[in-house]
């Protein structure tokens, strides 16, 4: 029997009106900034990502973060302008589908959800590993007959799952409560990060070099491409604030929160990257990968102060789990509202008016994937396998969103050339850069080996993860189009078309 779904695609409320599905506008610009900053999870990205990037680009961490910031900033302009015209819980899923093509829009939303679920799955292991490291610092090395091992994916995942479900329950309680909790965590994390990195800049004995900030000194094109993808992954998450656009008081607050979080991330990444390179030689920086921030702390202080970066990393990982489930549940809520997925995703909590069922479903799926991922034996290998794949996927859907903005606001090239530079030209250039970088890295993965192996460093395995994220959405899109007959896929009448220029 064909599912019948009421068409809500043309019934959109203005930015200042009531959300059409009944979610509460409970967050201002401060809360929007906190949500975006928690999603990017600077402390986790610095603690884990800088070591991984150092193994790729060498002592050029500040340079690669500066270069990657430019296309991401341009694409943030596209998100902000589209959100002003049509704030929607589906954000890029909705915009790409309406402006370019519903199939592309559905796949944009799909890979966003799948990428975030994968992120949540391996971040449970990161969180659990940090908790186990904290227990080790507290001289708790065994419980009963079990020896605690921070590099055990099984132990780390099981502990991380407890944190994941706790974070989900807070998210069900409400966006305002989640933002307040994350604000306290962010203040602590940033205080520790700034304190240790600031001290490291002066206490480090590695000579400061202008080459650290020179992208042309990066050793190869392959290193530049992979470093760019890893850096884009670090910035990934700023757009989560647009997924809660229907719960932010004004569209301008959401845009400000997204932009402020991006600038904050840039400053933190460049500052931390410089400090790390002042304290740690390249070999130590690259070899400590997933434990980079913890190792950095032990080089600068003795216990108990040396444990502070580890505590900050644990707080960041836990906050990022909560920050990940919030926009993902909203994305599925928007898809359910459009009839492309089941109506179960649109069920709101009767008191808190949050997509409670979707939040718990996403959490359960991420937990199941985390358990499946135990076939990869170490936490470090798990992180490495997922980050590159997600980085390519993120580059793809960022580019599609930017292209949608360029098409949507193209008429501004004639009527308002100044604004068109920001919302048409810059996003389009950013999209081309990310597509080129992602395409080059995919080609490099393909030619890096002649066989497939279930290993984090196997290029064909990396490509298979990317392909699976994309292709897995096609049958669901086909089901939504021909079985559900979702209005999202139906041609819009001329009355539904967006006016040119916005």
TrEMBL record:
Residues 1-24 are annotated as: Disordered. InterPro entries: AA/rel_permease1, APC_superfamily. Pfam families: AA_permease_2 (PF13520). Its main location: membrane. The chain crosses the membrane at residues 32-57, 63-82, 103-122, 154-172, 184-204, 216-238, 259-280, 300-325, 356-376, 382-409, 421-443, 463-482. Residues 1-14 have a biased composition (Basic and acidic residues). It is a multi-pass membrane protein. It is found in: Cell membrane. This is Amino acid transporter. The lineage of its organism: Bacteria, Bacillati, Actinomycetota, Actinomycetes, Kitasatosporales.
């Amino acid at each position: 029997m064909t599912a019948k779904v009421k068409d809500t695609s043309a019934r959109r409320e203005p930015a200042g009106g009531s959300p059409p599905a009944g979610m509460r506008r409970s967050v201002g610009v401060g809360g929007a900034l906190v949500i975006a900053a928690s999603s990017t999870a600077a402390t986790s990205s610095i603690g884990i990502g800088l070591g991984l990037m150092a193994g790729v680009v060498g002592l050029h961490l500040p340079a690669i973060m500066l270069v990657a910031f430019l296309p991401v900033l341009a694409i943030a302009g596209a998100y902000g302008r589209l959100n002003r015209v049509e704030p929607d819980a589906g954000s890029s899923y909705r915009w790409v589908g309406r402006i370019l093509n519903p199939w592309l829009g559905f796949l944009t939303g799909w890979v966003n959800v799948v990428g975030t679920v994968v992120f949540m799955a391996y971040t449970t292991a990161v969180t659990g590993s940090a908790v186990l490291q904290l227990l080790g610092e507290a001289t708790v090395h065994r419980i009963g007959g079990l020896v605690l091992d921070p590099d055990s994916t099984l132990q780390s995942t099981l502990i991380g799952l407890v944190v994941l479900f706790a974070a989900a329950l807070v998210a069900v309680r409400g966006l305002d409560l989640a933002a307040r909790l994350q604000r306290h965590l962010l203040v602590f994390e940033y205080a520790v990060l700034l304190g240790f990195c600031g001290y490291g800049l002066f206490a480090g004995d590695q000579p400061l070099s202008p080459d650290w900030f020179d992208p042309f000194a990066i050793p190869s094109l392959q290193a530049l491409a992979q470093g760019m993808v890893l850096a884009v992954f670090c910035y990934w998450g700023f757009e989560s604030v647009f997924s809660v656009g229907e719960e932010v008081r004004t569209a301008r607050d959401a845009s400000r929160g997204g932009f402020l979080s991006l600038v904050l991330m840039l400053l933190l990444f460049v500052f931390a990257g410089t400090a790390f390179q002042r304290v740690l030689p390249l070999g130590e920086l690259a070899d400590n990968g997933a434990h980079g921030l913890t190792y950095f702390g032990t080089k600068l202080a003795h216990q108990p102060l040396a444990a502070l970066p580890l505590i900050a990393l644990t707080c960041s990982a836990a906050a990022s789990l909560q920050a990940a489930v919030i926009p993902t549940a909203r994305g599925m809520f928007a898809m359910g509202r459009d009839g492309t997925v089941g109506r179960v995703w649109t069920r709101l909590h009767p008191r808190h008016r949050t997509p409670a069922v979707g939040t718990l479903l996403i959490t359960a799926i991420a937990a199941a994937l985390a358990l499946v991922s135990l076939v990869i034996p170490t936490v470090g290998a798990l992180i490495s396998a997922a980050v590159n794949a997600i980085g390519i996927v993120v580059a793809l859907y960022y580019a599609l969103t930017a292209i949608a903005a360029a098409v949507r606001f193209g008429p501004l090239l004639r009527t308002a050339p100044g604004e068109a530079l920001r919302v048409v030209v810059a996003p389009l250039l950013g999209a081309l850069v990310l597509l080129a970088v992602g395409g080059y890295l995919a080609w490099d993965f393909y030619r890096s080996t002649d066989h497939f192996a279930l290993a984090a460093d196997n290029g064909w395995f990396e490509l298979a993860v990317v392909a699976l994220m994309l292709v897995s959405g096609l049958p669901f899109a086909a089901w939504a189009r021909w079985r559900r007959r979702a209005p999202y896929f139906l041609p819009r009448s001329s009355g539904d078309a967006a006016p040119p220029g916005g």
